[in-house]
Amino acid sequence: MNRAPKPHIGMKLPDLLLPVTRRLVSMGAAASRDWQPQHHDPDWAREAGLPDIIMNNYTQAGLISRFVTDWSGPSGRIGRLRFAMRRPLCPVGNLTIRGAVVDLSAESDTLVWVEIDAEILVGDDIVTTATIRVALPGPGGDSSAWHCSGSRWNP
């Protein structure tokens, strides 16, 4: 059964709200084998001019991917993820990831590319911006984006 969302331009994805803890920041870095001290040593980070330890790019990429796949469900397949970290993301409470569909293009009757612009916010401050391109099954059947390959895979 196809439970993929029926996207339209302007469609807002459900916000993702997460607590940003020291544990999340340091364990995210450790999980990606990023042993740089700015991700786990607050004294080192402050001496380097940072406000606190900072979340690394791999953890942010994972959270952005989760945001998209929470919306798309298992039928969505991320083809491209680009993001820019604008400000350090420190363990300071909660973050919110929000986004909306900005473009649709039908590859065929069975595959639709959805482009999403997203932001990670801490309070009202945008700390990271992202553009994600995800493949979803098209209106013409139960085809899976996971079976798409070769010349049809154009993220």
TrEMBL record:
Domain of life: Bacteria
Cited InterPro entries: HotDog_dom_sf (IPR029069), MaoC-like_dom (IPR002539)
Pfam families registered for this protein in UniProt: MaoC_dehydratas
Domain MaoC-like positions: 18-81
Designated name of the protein: MaoC-like domain-containing protein
Source species of the chain: Erythrobacter aureus
Lineage: Bacteria, Pseudomonadati, Pseudomonadota, Alphaproteobacteria, Sphingomonadales
